[in-house]
Amino acid sequence: MSEAQLLGVVDDHEDGVLDAVEDALHQQRTSREQLRQALRPQLTAALVRGYEVGYRAAMATHDRSVARLQASADTDVDFLAAPPSPTSTPSGEFIAPVVDGPEVDPLAAPTQEHAYDWAALGEPASDEDSASDAASELNENDDDENENDEEGAPIIPPPAIDDEGGDNEGAGDEEEIRRTRKSSEEIEAQAEQIFEFIQKNPGTRAREARQALGLEPTEWRSAVQRLTEAGRIFYVGSTRARIYFPIPKRKDGRPKKLTATTFILALDELEPETMVEAGAEWGLTFNATYVHQIRSNARRHLARAQALQDARALMVRYPNNPEGYQALRLAHFHAKRTDAMWTACQALTTLNAADERERAFYETHRARGTRPPLGTITADLLRDRVLLTDRVLTTIVDYLIPALLERYGRPTASLGYTDAHRVDPARHSLLTEAAQLLGLQLHPVYQHAGVPRPLFFIHGDNPTIGVGAETSRVTSPSEAAFLAGWYTSYLLPGHYARPLVRSEPELRRWVHAALSLSRGEPVGGLNPLELATLEKQIDPDERADIREQAGSCTPESLDITTWLRNVDMTADRVGLLFSNDLVQAIHSIRGGFDLGDEATAFRVDGLRLWSVSEDYLELRSLLGIALT
Questions:
Q1: Assign residue 375 a region: left if phi > 0, alpha if psi is -120 to 50, beta otherwise?
Q2: All residues at 6 or more sequence positions from 22 whose CB lies less than 8 Å from its CB, including other chains
Q3: Which residues pair with 236 in a beta bridge?
Q4: Helices (H), 203-287
Q5: What is the tens place of the pLDDT at every residue in 117-168?
Q6: Can you tell me the distance from the alpha carbon of 37 to that of 24, in angstroms, rounded to the nearest whole number?
Q7: How far apart are CA 87 and CA 15, in angstroms?
């Protein structure tokens, strides 16, 4: 039996031996005889496994020698006596000399069979399982070489041992290798499973993780070795006391280089001197003073994060109480977040609660961000950071828009708008830029000098925004930007139903009818002309999509009142994002031009809270309007 095979057996039973020692110490069984009794089952099991591995190695050598002699002599040769069958039970007479007496020839067969206590040693492996275990242990030391192969390259194990003898050549032998050796993909899948567990449970121990994931020690070691060499995890300690931590990822998904800071923050409970020694094992050089400094900075960061959390909780509970915004501004000041501090001062200004320094800071930097943002918000950011509307209800209403326009709108020409009223959207750059921000394509824009409002809706052939008299009273560029963003937001999928169908019960009956039609159920609530319009405008593919999106939800579960309110609040957010002026946005909501329902304190409070949120700050940074 080679040294590599012996080490494999030791590694496989090491945890069991240590567990037995720990249990004995826990039960205060510390005498020599008590420890002997506690360790005997584990040590005996290790010796049995060593015998099995050594036997199979000898058997393989024997069979290869026979094959070579047969090939050279071209005749059957009975070369040596075959070792005993691996299915035979190892006898106590063979094991005892290994423990207490001289060495025993590994090829010597037991002289006789004895009754054997398998309960103490573990269940005997079948022929197939034993061959698999032996091949796994014999090949375990080759993992180091396989880890250095190109990523995704298959692991090529040494020849597996065939219980029936013969060289490992041909299709049958290849099948045996595949049976006894995990593929690279399987090992990689186990490694990913372990990495996810360590990410969720940093500081986990091997035994806890193995039990949670249902992995064998050899599977755990192989996967952990792969993760360690890939720079995705690191560990501290040895053997059973070892604990594992993940290494943070880069933006592109690759693991970062293990740094002293990451190492120190992961091991917060170790003494600085112990930390220095542990870091040296990973090639990290630092001293105890550096450990104190990193931990002190981390505690300050944690305190600031807690202050932010407390301030936001206070604002949500009391949206008109300036104390929450003042605490938020102070937390951002300590964190040196200039743009976040400016948005907090802006919110305090709308509450008339900003002191002289806060107001001066807000006014000084206000002019720097008045230009409308450029670029486009991605669909994911728009959904996750801006939109408030329910996805299922929005899908149904969006498919209803053509039917609603036919029912509540009129042909554009019959409304008095001709080609003479059409203007190039580029002439109204704010509308064009607002549509670009949301990733929308504007329908033709009509201008009517007789309308005394800057912007309005035209319920014609398509959802359309009209431009009124150029002399309409717009007091500032930020007001014009807010209105452009606000009106354009209603061109988002489904949102145009809000200005088109002003009554909540009216929209409700259309939504219920569309859901029933899509499910093949009797349609109620519509007159025959409306039903014919619905059937014409929602085709079979759209009905199938409605069924898929709606799932098992009932018409009563669709909260249309909240959906209508959230459409308006989404418009408020888009207007603020486009104008970059909360003071002007709140002024327009409270008394602006035809901005839907009467402005409510709920909408104003909601917009003010969003103006200091991390979602809004992230969007400001991405669009290039954040203060730096």
A1: left
A2: 240
A3: 243
A4: 206-213, 217-229, 260-266, 272-281
A5: 333 333 333 443 433 343 333 333 333 333 333 333 333 333 332 333 333 3
A6: 10
A7: 27
Please give the distance of CA 580 from its chain centroid, rounded to a whole number.
31
Domains for the chain: give ranges and CATH numbers.
Answer: 3-180 (no CATH), 184-286 (1.10.10.10), 290-369 (1.25.40), 379-597 (no CATH)
Q: What is the pLDDT of residues 514-569, one digit of tens each?
A: 999 999 999 999 999 999 999 999 999 999 999 999 998 898 899 999 999 999 99
* Tokens representing residue 319 in the block: 């949206």
Whole-number Cα distances in Å, 481 to 351, 371, 516, 619:
22, 9, 41, 17
User: Alpha-carbon distance 343 to 556, whole Å?
Assistant: 40
Q: Enumerate the H helices of 139-183 as residue ranges.
A: 143-147, 171-180
HSE-CB of 79 using CA atoms within 13 angstroms: 16
Helices and strands in the chain: count of H runs, count of E runs: 28, 7
Between 241 and 302, whose confidence is greater? 302
319-323 contacts, C-beta under 8 A, 24 or more apart: 319/605, 319/608, 319/609, 320/351, 320/601, 320/605, 322/348, 322/351, 322/353
Give the whole-angstrom CA distance, residue 433 versus residue 431: 6
Residue with tokens 């280089």: 257
Rg over CA atoms, the chain:
37
**Cβ-based neighbours of 582, under 8 Å, separated by 6 or more:** 343, 346, 347, 349, 350, 576, 607, 608, 611
The answer to whether 345 and 353 have CB atoms below 8 angstroms apart is: no
Mean predicted confidence (pLDDT) in 324-335: 90
Say if residues 18 and 240 touch (Cβ distance below 8 Å).
yes
Strand-pairing partners, residue 464, are: 458
Distance CA 318, CA 287 (A): 47
Q: Are 433 and 376 in contact (CB under 8 A)?
A: no
Q: Coil, strand, or helix at residue 423?
A: strand
CB-based contacts of 20, cutoff 8 Å, min separation 6: 38, 39, 41, 42
Report the C-alpha gap between 429 and 442 in whole angstroms.
Answer: 12
Per-residue pLDDT tens over the stretch 418-468? 888 888 877 788 899 999 999 998 888 898 888 888 899 999 999 999 998
